[in-house]
Specification:
By secondary structure, the chain is α/β, with parallel strands linked by helices. The chain contains 8 helices and 17 strands. It starts with 19 loop residues before the first strand and ends in a 31-residue tail after the last strand.
Length: about 350
């Protein structure tokens, strides 16, 4: 077991357009408590949170990386993966720096394990302009943990009328942060459920039930939710049933993506997830959930959407693209069963165009 927190040397007095006050805090004595993520760091004057993105000053909380983007690129919703959220559309996808989880297996460690306090500042309205210019249907915050860009994301979403808005998150946000995103227009979220209670306790110094609560809360507020479970041999593969049970207790129509691990970061020695293991979990999960997928295995039959009532093939995918749609509106043309889909089935923009 190894923790991998972001590495950074925060400047003593950061300044510039990327340093803004955060509304999500409360005063605690002479310090402040951050209310952005569920770790709720309590900070004395001048101290920085565990994520190295926020600090206390003058009895207030500030974020020092507002608008400092690490990436901006057009991507299909299917790669998120979000299969039931505006299928066959693309989103201008942005990311910041750092994370509030210490995952040793991080697949985007080059963004999540460092924090940068300088660089070109991107105003929120510019992100919206990029999306419209590129023909994207939405905006997504991903790659690293979007909680790091919470205040910026809220401001981007408020300006993004007519575009769908979503995040890919580890789900360790406070309800105050979730409320701010929902009020700004967030419609969808893919939440990583990284295992069961043991995985969160041993590997993440976090609370499994906190993430499940986020899924439940978002779903209850009308946000479209999909869940990703990255199956890591010898780490969290023994808790697959706990993951499926947690999702099913919220709603059996929530799509679950069972995804193959690829050796990365502090785990280059861990082998990729065997396809047979993914298929075994997929078969078990389909008894409890309507929509279950296998990810990171291009060409696998479990990339497609099947009618949960009659089994008809409805949406065919290959890798990160939709290649065929057989729906009658949002219903199965064979039996008439309504398929759980948020938004319209649209068209991709100029995919993988990079703006940063």
């Amino acid at each position: 077991m190894a923790y991998s927190w972001p590495r950074a040397s925060p400047p003593p007095s950061p300044a510039g357009p990327h340093v803004v006050e955060s509304p999500l805090f409360e005063r605690v004595g002479s310090g402040v408590r951050c209310l952005v993520c569920r770790r709720r760091c309590t900070l004395r004057e001048g101290a920085w949170g565990l994520c190295k993105n926020r600090f206390a000053k003058g009895g207030k909380l500030y974020v020092a990386t507002y608008g400092l983007l690490s990436a901006a690129e057009s991507r299909p919703m299917e790669i998120k993966p979000m299969y039931h959220f505006y299928p066959r559309t693309s989103a201008l996808t942005i990311s910041g720096w750092g994370c509030n989880f210490p995952c040793a297996w991080c697949q985007n460690w080059h963004l999540s394990k460092v924090v940068v306090y300088s660089g070109a500042y991107t105003p929120p309205e510019r992100v919206v302009e990029w999306a419209l210019e590129n023909g994207d249907s939405g905006i997504n915050v991903s790659f690293n943990e979007p909680t790091m860009l919470l205040e910026y994301t809220v401001d981007v979403f408020k300006r993004a009328a007519g575009l769908h808005k979503s995040i890919n998150t580890n789900g360790y946000l406070t309800r105050e942060a979730l409320d701010a995103l929902i009020a700004a227009g967030m419609e969808g979220a893919n939440v990583d459920l990284k295992g069961g209670p043991e995985t969160y306790r041993r590997w993440l110094a976090a609370d499994f039930h906190g993430v499940v609560d986020t899924i439940q809360y978002l779903w209850g507020r009308g946000v479209h939710v999909e869940v990703t479970y990255l199956v890591i041999p010898g780490v969290n593969d023994h808790e697959a049933d706990a993951v499926v049970e947690a999702v099913a207790k919220v709603d059996r129509s929530i799509p679950l993506h069972i995804t193959a691990f690829r050796p990365a970061h502090l785990m280059p020695h861990v082998p990729p997830t065997p396809v047979q293991l993914l298929e075994e979990i997929w078969q078990r999960a389909r008894r409890e959930l309507d929509y279950v997928y296998v990810g990171n295995v291009p060409g696998h039959k479990a990339q497609h959407t099947y009618c949960p009532k009659c089994g008809a093939l409805l949406i065919k995918r290959f890798a990160d693209r939709v290649v065929e749609v057989k729906l009658d509106g949002k219903r199965c043309p064979k039996c008439g069963h309504e398929i759980k889909i948020r938004g319209h089935i649209g068209h991709y923009g100029n995919l993988y165009r990079q703006f940063i």
